[in-house]
Backbone:
């Protein structure tokens, strides 16, 4: 904004513009050529430059080169008569297409926050509150009109792109405000004498107020719209016409594996999931899944919870999973529950709710990775398996002991009894693991046969060979 105002007051200095003295079509050609040069040069020249910087391992140069590129492109756009804001926008597009965009994003993140704050300070300082007080009704009407028109356009687009139910309204209301780029465009229109400054000041108020009202739209969505569509979605749940001995709540990457193994073992399962996109993908492979919220008692009853032998809770929502355990333990105590835990603290919550078979979602994969690491380091597979299994058993005992000390109302690091007992358990685990470790030779090729049995078999074979030779 400050640059635009400065340009509006002083104009370009002599010799600082590539388009002075050119005809209209020549100015257009120069501008298009400059934009094309930015995209083409940025796409093909930045790659070897950033690759060289990456090979040199000079991270500071990433930041310096990125900022120089932004400033250079902004200056180029100014020289061809365009807004420097457009130049910085083009620089962002060019950098976003770089294979090093994630590294650049992390390096310039401090500058982003600083400059964004400076931008909004400049915008806030430019708001004319006297104008707002003098034309309050008109400005409010223009703001509401802008948001209404934009929300209607977005609502039409949501129908065109088949956005459904509450997501449609979230899309329409969440983007109904004017964007930050509106401030820049208004400054450019004043600089280019396209719009009088008085009108631009009013529109600046409209843009700012629309952004200020956006949180109110989210509150409207959460309090009014979302609850209504929650009931409508419940009405769209599938009619569960089957019952099985095992009910699986959730069929993502966790529950899906369980379902396939149980089906292969001959058990009849009833699978519930409320993710419609996930269900569509599974049904394409002829995997039968019912659309429904498994935390609802009526849907559990329809799935046969009264006669089921087991309930497997595979959802990743810790609060809903814990509430489901409480309900089933209280009303259907005959059902055996296997529950998925998000983390160690979730294990304690599920244990307190009454579940006694709890599986941490990443624990088994971590144990397998540790076993593979031991084997790669030269441990015999039998020793690696024994050590990891020993760790698992010790961890189970520790979990049961620590569950009694866990207090959900006290932060873990402030629970002195829990912390001290955890330290003691970790020390005993390490001592036990060191004491049980042996045979660290590189004998991976022996497979799963214990070393002692291999040695015994070799001794028997040697004795047998010796006795045969004596007879001969």
Residues:
């Amino acid at each position: 904004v400050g640059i635009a105002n400065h340009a509006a007051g002083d104009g370009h200095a002599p010799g600082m513009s590539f388009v002075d003295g050119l005809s209209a079509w020549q100015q257009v050609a120069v501008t298009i050529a400059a934009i094309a040069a930015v995209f083409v040069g940025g796409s093909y020249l930045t790659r070897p430059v950033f690759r060289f910087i990456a090979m040199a391992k000079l991270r500071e140069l990433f930041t310096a080169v990125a900022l120089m590129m932004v400033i250079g492109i902004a200056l180029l756009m100014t020289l061809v008569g365009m807004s420097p804001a457009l130049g910085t926008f083009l620089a962002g597009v060019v950098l976003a297409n770089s294979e090093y965009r994630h590294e650049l994003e992390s390096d310039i993140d401090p500058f982003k926050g600083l400059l964004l704050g400076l931008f909004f300070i400049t915008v806030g300082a430019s708001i004319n509150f006297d104008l707002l007080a003098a034309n309050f009704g008109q400005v409010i009407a223009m703001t509401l009109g802008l948001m209404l028109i934009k929300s209607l356009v977005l609502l039409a687009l949501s129908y065109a792109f088949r956005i459904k139910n509450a997501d449609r309204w979230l899309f329409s209301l969440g983007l109904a405000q004017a964007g930050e780029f509106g401030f820049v465009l208004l400054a450019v229109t004043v600089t280019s004498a396209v719009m009088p400054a008085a009108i631009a000041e009013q529109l600046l108020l409209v843009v700012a107020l629309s952004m200020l009202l956006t949180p109110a739209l989210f509150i409207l969505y959460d309090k009014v719209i979302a609850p209504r569509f929650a009931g409508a979605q419940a009405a769209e749940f599938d009619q569960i016409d089957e019952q099985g001995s095992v009910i699986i709540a959730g069929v993502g990457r966790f529950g899906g594996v369980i379902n396939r193994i149980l089906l292969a073992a001959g058990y009849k399962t009833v699978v519930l999931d409320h993710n419609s996109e996930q269900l569509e993908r599974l049904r394409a492979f002829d995997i039968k899944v019912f659309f429904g919220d498994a935390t609802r008692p009526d849907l559990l009853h329809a799935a046969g919870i009264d006669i089921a032998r087991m309930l497997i809770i595979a959802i990743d929502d810790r609060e809903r999973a814990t509430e489901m355990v409480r309900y089933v333990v209280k009303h259907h105590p005959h059902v055996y529950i296997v529950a998925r835990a998000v983390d160690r603290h979730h294990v304690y919550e599920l244990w307190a709710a009454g579940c006694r078979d709890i599986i941490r979602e990443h624990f088994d994969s971590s144990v397998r990775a540790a076993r593979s690491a031991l084997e790669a380091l030269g441990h015999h597979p039998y020793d690696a398996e024994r050590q990891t299994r020993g760790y698992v058993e010790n961890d189970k005992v520790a979990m049961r002991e620590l569950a009694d000390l866990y207090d959900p109302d006290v932060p873990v690091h402030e629970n002195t009894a829990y912390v001290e007992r955890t330290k003691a358990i970790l020390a005993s685990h390490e001592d036990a693991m060191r004491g049980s470790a042996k045979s660290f030779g590189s004998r991976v090729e022996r497979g799963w046969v214990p070393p002692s049995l291999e040695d015994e078999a070799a001794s028997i074979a040697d004795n047998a060979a010796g006795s045969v030779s004596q007879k001969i």
User: Anything to note?
Assistant: Residues 80 and 413 are 60 Å apart (CA to CA). Confidence is low (pLDDT under 50) at residues 1-15, 437-448, 468-472. The radius of gyration is 34 Å. The chain has three domains: 1-125, 127-236, 246-446.
